[in-house]
Batch of 3 targets.
Target 1
Amino acid sequence: MAGTARRERSPGASAAPRTMMSLLDYHVHLWPHDQTAEPAEHTIERLAAYCDVAASAGVGEIALTEHLFRFRAGRDAVGSFWQDDTDPDRRATMSAYFDHHATADLDAYVEAVLAAKRAGLPVVLGLEVDYYEGRMDAVSRLLSGYPFDVLLGSVHWIGTWMFDVLGDAVSEREWQERGVEEAWRGYTTALEELAATRACDVLAHPDLVKLTGRRPPASLLEECHDRMAAAAASSGMAAEISSAGWRTPVGEPYPAPGLLERFRESGVAVTTASDAHGSPGVGFRSGELAVIASSAGYSTLRAFRSRSPHDVPIVADDVR
């Protein structure tokens, strides 16, 4: 049974947002992927250290957005969907992935972030929610009982293919067997389906499928970009400008300039993010993200309270 976290509303949720704010980092995790979740790490002191790192990078507010698959309740909601896959290697890989990650308590996480908010730390309560085909209604039912400020929507796997796990033999085999064009088409379709559920507020790292540096021919790339922008616009979702791509083989932020241009033309709002897994990466290259957003024609960033959007200005001092 869920605890009091499910019944408590975010303090100050109805308060008017600040009219001036420095940059946002709306994608921050507590644990690196190679670590299991530790309840002792749910402390105000630890979250305050995250905020200190953010402030030093010119970031005025962070969204704590741990992966839903980190929590036992998340796994219970989506079930062992990989068991339907006919490929034993993909089944085994994803089963081991969830066994490693799904160890945390969702109520404890929510309570910790709410406590940080009550203490006056500049944090908002979020989650990163993967796309689970045919299971998003169950995900939404679970999350509706909690006072989340923002939900990020992500595509990290296509079916049961975890395409973004670098160095994994099964993932690499799939890249070779499926090919780049099929990968991009499958990713784009999954992103469209995720957006159509309207279960989340922000598309995280929208063109994540490029992380290995593999891109399709220009005509297909443009088609995928057009479809991604249309999906975001029709769902009302914002899109993330993320510095995480600089830490992967592709060596550039998400989204690519062409996709960001399409977001702007389609009226899709943006936010900025580091996708940090631990405090050292919070606010990573935040000033450069501000320049990218401004150069694309944006003067504001999208922020959230209680799943309701509001825009905050990109302060001139942040663009440097």
Target 2
Amino acid sequence: MIWRYFLKKRIALIAVAAVALVVMMVLVVLSIMSGLVEDNRRRNHDWVGDLVIKSNSLVGFPYYNEFLTELENHDQVTAAAPIIKTFGLLAHVEEMVELYGVDLESWCTVTNFADTLHYQPENGLPSFVIQGNNLLTDEQKHHGCITGIYLILHSFTNSMSKKNRPLLENLGVDQKGFAEMPVTVLGLTSRGTLATDLGERRIFRYVNDSDTGLVEIDRTAIYVDFKQLQQLCWMDGADSNPPRTSEIRIKLKDRINLETGRTQITTAWNEFVRKKQGQPAAFLLDNTIVEDWKQYRRSSIAPMEREKTMMIALFGMIAVVAVFIVVAIFYMIVTEKIKDLGIIKSVGGSNWSVGQIFLGYGLLVGIIGATLGATLGCAVVWNSNQIESGVSAIYTSFGWGDFHLWDPDVYAIERIPDVVNLPEAAIIALVAVLASIIGAALPARRAAQLEVVETLRVE
């Protein structure tokens, strides 16, 4: 009975369409936003490692080598790497950059840095030593640097579009050792005072570039040899105090839970700090903290997670509209069939049996709408990149320019996330079915409470 009536009543198709559209929109938005958030989290994790021991000042902290030795013997640690992080002035473009002093072997073990490089090393490990350029002195060959992809593009093409990367080849910038990156750094003593009035200047030379997918990093980062930057920053013990570093990045073993590992390393670090009290420059150890990668990069991760939550809330409010559409349509049906309901009651139909008709109707609307919406939503997500390419081709053919849902040069997104979380899709469909039943509940209650005399009365 319900099936036959459903097929005859076109007004019911409006309720089905409303449910289907809401399910499709929520599924598409949730899948794409979840993909973007997960991709952002993965990129941050790959660049940071698992844990970070960091100083809250540019001065850094001493005795890092001793703690690195402890970490090598720690049963929860795979590898650890010291990092010097400071700011410098890139002379030829007069811009502030972030300088990272790294030991490439340990740095690439703790992070996935090697996978982000444009020129993949033949022997498995990148190097700051410039090979194959006989025009440089031996000293110059050891002053190589790796830049962020957007930094090198902006410096020599005045653009941040990866489409302009061939210009680097035309300019000869991609030749190792050709492009000069003159940097001035202000060195600090252990007491936080300037080591020199004018700073230390050194010319580094391009050997490679890194595309981490983190725009704020790739726009300002220059990676150089740890020892060289340590010397430039006066963190090598030149002020008669122990050598210093800015951070220690740590990679945990695969079986170790992140929170458990952070707790264990924090305990070990606090004990190490306690033992060093009273030694030269040990007061700098009091300005350090231990964070996991999510805490360390919260400024990059949190905004995207908030955006995802806001989008879900927004489309959740839109979903309420579908419930009201179902309510309105079912009220219309009840009003239209009021005499039929009276006949059912007059022959012994109970309030529950009458209400059950409309609850079943709502269930049917929900099932069909949710199934249709989930199917369309999955199809859109799985083919999102093809859809964007097709729309872009249409725009181009009409001379309207290029179309990008997310411009890869702005958002650093190589492709739109096209993976559907099937459990999430099932939950969205189930909620849509429940919402349809709830939307049918009020009209069903009204239909069930109608009096026989009232329903059969002829106006």
Target 3
Amino acid sequence: MDFSKLKNFSAQSFSFDANFNILEETDDFIVIHKKNGIAVQVTDKETEDLETILNNKYPEKVHVLNRIDQPVTGLVIFGKNKKFAAAFTEMLKERTVKKTYLALVSGSPQSGPTELKHYIKKLHNRAMTADEPVDENFKVAVLVYTLLQSFDNYHLIKIDLKTGRFHQIRAQLATVEMPVKGDLKYGSRRPNLDRSIGLLSYKLEFEHPFTGKTHSYVSPLPQNDVLWGLVDLNLIS
């Protein structure tokens, strides 16, 4: 889906909310554009989350199929039935679902595609990385980033996520001294005013496990940071 042509779609094609937009809904899944600040799943009774909102809307339980952190903006997919959810989860394990992120980072990214491979362990509410698996709780984490554009103090990188670990992108980038803008938990020197971080779940591509149809979705860029407004759109095709 090309958001540069969003004006060509009818208003009936989209459901709008203060914290999220439903980009497409089929019999099997719902693709949502989540804004920063809302959780995908319940974190506490005081915080609104997408899973609870959708479960209050639909008669059958929805299934979370990918998660992005509360301060992150971008694409999330929910399954509307157990059959699709199970098939999509298997596709994730087989790495046939392509997930692409954009990030604003400090530090010194290398030019050209660069693979980062670490081992990650969830420790309370953050991730710990290591170069080798210290014990069975450390799981392999792999991503490939490409430098797209540089600003005065930050850089725009594209990230092809090969595995889906807890806080993977944030932790791996921090490990190589490239923390995400505004991400105090992983080494950023200052917060963003709205408590967001400069990480966007930008593109989601997969082949429907039953119909074989290819589905591709692209998130609009956030409007909460001046740097996103300086991005050269020709570089992020």
